[in-house]
User: What shape does this take?
Amino acid sequence: MKKKFMGLLATAALLLAACSGGGDTTDSGSTSTSGDTAAVSQTISVSTAGELTTLDSGQYTDTYSSDMIGQLAEGLYRLDADGQPELAMAAEDPEISEDGLTYTFKIRDAEWSNGDPVTANDFEYAFKYVANPENASSSINQMDIFQNGYEVRNGDAEPDTLGVTALDDETLELTLASPISYLDQILVGTPFMPRNESFASDLGTAYGTSSDNFLGNGPFTISGWNGNSESWTLTKNENYWDADNVQLDQIDVQVITETATGVNLFDTGALDFTLLTDTYAQEEQDNALSHYDTRSLVGYVSANQNREVTGNVLVRQALLQSIDKEGYVENVLGDGSTALNGFVPANFAYDPDSGEDFREENGDLLPYDLDAAKEAWAAAKEELGQDEITLEILSADSTVARRTVEFLQGQWQDNLEGLTISVASMPLSNRLQRQTDGDFDLVFGTWTPDYADPINFLEFYDSTGGLNTSGYASESYDAGLQEARTTLANDPEARWDELLALEKQLIEEDTAVLPIYQGALAYLQSERLQGVQTFQFGRTVSYRLAYVTE
Assistant: This one.
């Protein structure tokens, strides 16, 4: 699987790869530049397509926040210039027990932005914060990789029993529930960032709610964000352990939800980096400054199963099979995204025995089929005893999100007799809050995995996971996920077969999610800006290795 995946990544510049971690990174962060960058003002202006909702790595639920946290904080591993995991806060490769369950890390001599030392306890505190169900972290299920993680999450064990222990200030011991060959990939993820205990515990729930209420250990610091600001500034963190290899001094960030605005500002030189969507992605294809990178992002609709209509599986199947996904990606997105008939994307994970792509092997699950959709819809209305049905779909207020739900509204009203769809677009934080509160019929969102394994998609609908706001709950599905995490960990082919079966249950049998497309990353980048990293999954972009030339 790894060889085939690496072969794919060799064709795309600076994408996140799934591979084993490397050695010491003392020199690996250096940037190959042409000319003397010290003579050039190392200040850039960039846009982000969505608002920043939190700086708390234990509470984020969206890619935009994760991207910013990734500029400000750093875990045991980071991504090198080739997008591969390398040592970061870990000073050297860990010692691994013979059974593959215990990893012992030495923490690098590093500081928080306020000068406090980064210690092993900062990792223990952070991981146990996420694992503690009282904190309602959306990433809580990710701590299942550790001993007792699943039991802690479900209230059957105390957070202190999680297999994460600071043996002393410089030594961190991680005990896994089952062996994991790609642990370095997982530990790059945002939920595995450290947390300064004295600073965070003093603030309580206010931690991460503004730039003043956050402390990082990464390449940059943040200022000017009050929790609602639509612009802020990133500044080089002089206390960062690898500051000598950070070229940029300042990054001015603006929230720009309208693609047209971003393109116009880029054309005038006011922006050095901005995303492209819909017609602009098509129009800029001949522009030498435009870039198109593959992504493992999935766009989907989630239905509230705690409501009568959307809780009906026939309704959900009718909605899913009445969407012309090919028409959508061609006419609405136009950025290289592709129609997706499954929740695990293509070119992402491969059969450990045959090397076959997961998406190809599991086939198209409930694809566009108007006859089947209308049949399911008629049966659903009969079951519900309703001829006229009205549903609301929520989305964020970005251009692509609004255009997406308007497309879905047209598809469903045209194809399913008696159905009326109302659209509610709002700031991302409001949409996320309504999801969390269960105040929705349907909601459009996107999901990007943290590492290259199908379970990182499938566990999205774990009934006890923090990301599952749909009300979907299946004992057999949850049990299958847990089996894939634990008892099948040392039997790759049996585990793979279980993951294939779980996806079919998720979509074909229970239709818990309505997948629509696999995304791409299209953007404009100024000629003077070099070294920007973009990733296939996990966070979208990093400026750690970026620099400005003449």
Notes: Residues 492-509 form the longest helix (18 residues).
